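User: Please predict the structure of the protein below. I'd like the answer in structure-token form so I can feed it into my own downstream comparison script.

Assistant: Understood. Taking the following sequence of 76 residues as input:
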Amino acid sequence: MAIELRSATDHLPDLQNKMQEYLDNGVQLGWLFNPQDQQVEIYRVSYPVEVLNLPVDVSGEGVLPGLVLKLDRFSD
């Protein structure tokens, strides 16, 4: 699993490319947190990227069963 948090100085396309690199190298699940746009991009092997707007939580799905990360800050 890979997690990226976009900072104010990060360029989103660079981080998106990095997430794709992780998948290409064996990572099965990735979360790209984008607080500037209040979005989370979910990266999975063999699936298109899923973009969640103002998510309440994200889960580890089958990669880390039972893991749920609450995102209270996005729901303010």
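That's the full token string. Residues 33 and 40 are 5 Å apart (CA to CA).
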